[in-house]
């Protein structure tokens, strides 16, 4: 045992020891707080000294690297005459040999004399393409920050590339510092290169999507003048199909005949099939279970086939029963041009609602169109059959519907928006084909806006409107009429509790609807968010808002960010109206809107 203790002591004495409790300080007299903070954030030796298991060699290596890093920080902010000293136990790190580093370092000290901030005496960049916007700070008399020079050079090159000169580059630069006057003369020379046209799309092998389909989807304008935005659009078209895990377009290093430039395409396929499930829970509406199965490349042309199912109202307490729906949709991109796709749709529903039952089937198809990265639309033809029973009686209705919709989406995140807006509008002409159907039209709109207040608060608002025009309430299926109350309209009010009351005490859906919602979302931690909300809804018997009733509800909510979207818990109660009482709660995935 004594010999074992001696051996342990010897091993501990020769083993490398971490530089525990190393003191580390940075001083920069006269430097603005922002500059000092940037220096501290960039100093690797300060970070290394704070690590309990960092060795002396780790701290020494970090200190040697800090000279260039800290000078770079100061250059970026216009300080071109700095002095930087990094000492380890009083010895300059730059003067130490890697072989003479002590076993332990007790103190790291960084001393920075920033000197005077420099200003531009000259700020020239030429030649410039017409319409090039240079950074506002690249001008005589403005702070001579290195980042501003880089931004100006990049803007100059981008200007020429936008004008069709794909090989534009920085050909030379002259940076002359006048230390007595603390000025910098910056001159940048650009080489636009020749005007370039798109050449061929050179496709790397390996994808299960056929080459002719890759070309059609990308829509690269071969033979047209080079345009970096056209290149970005081609990549986005490919990503939008969902068939690829990654998409990479590269410009050829050398130009071909007639200054044409080939574009290389490399894609990595997604897994062909995907399965997903979701669940929502309301204290009165019951549970909703949904799921889907999707094939991303059904016929080898990035076609998508998706089956969706939903069972709603499981265990609901507001009358009615379970609602069942099943749908299948086939999408094929690039059928007329690169931005126009084809869809085919089939769906069946069996709805057992508090005020009606309806079994319906829809089948048809149409075209989709991407107008811009944020604006898209659809137009189609669908045949709809409905077998209905409500307080107006039993009937069958067959309509030929012509749905047309536009969506303008400028949200920063579709599942958890913090900024931007969302607009969706649709008009669906209803042509009577058989049974008790009447001709008319269904009009809907949904507008949402998100406004951040600082880094932790987001104000969110939503307005919904709907109208059935040209047809009476018994000439369209009840599922196309409007009710209010529940998680999708007015939280705190029972599900579909607001409708149109008939003189005999019966109830039917309204021909007009207005829904208003407001939320204040307050971040508590990086993952937890508190929400206060107020919802209001209107349902009327006529096509436009006139006679009818309002009700409202309010409450509090909690959100937990899972990384792919927040889990939502809301608790609410009625505020106005006579359609319900008591407290209700809602659980789901994603924000309420």
From TrEMBL:
<keyword id="KW-0812">Transmembrane</keyword>
<feature type="domain" description="Bacterial surface antigen (D15)">
    <location>
        <begin position="297"/>
        <end position="593"/>
    </location>
</feature>
<protein>
    <submittedName>
        <fullName>Outer membrane protein assembly factor</fullName>
    </submittedName>
</protein>
<keyword id="KW-1134">Transmembrane beta strand</keyword>
<dbReference type="InterPro" id="IPR039910">
    <property type="entry name" value="D15-like"/>
</dbReference>
<dbReference type="InterPro" id="IPR000184">
    <property type="entry name" value="Bac_surfAg_D15"/>
</dbReference>
<dbReference type="Pfam" id="PF01103">
    <property type="entry name" value="Omp85"/>
</dbReference>
<keyword id="KW-0732">Signal</keyword>
<keyword id="KW-0472">Membrane</keyword>
<feature type="signal peptide">
    <location>
        <begin position="1"/>
        <end position="21"/>
    </location>
</feature>
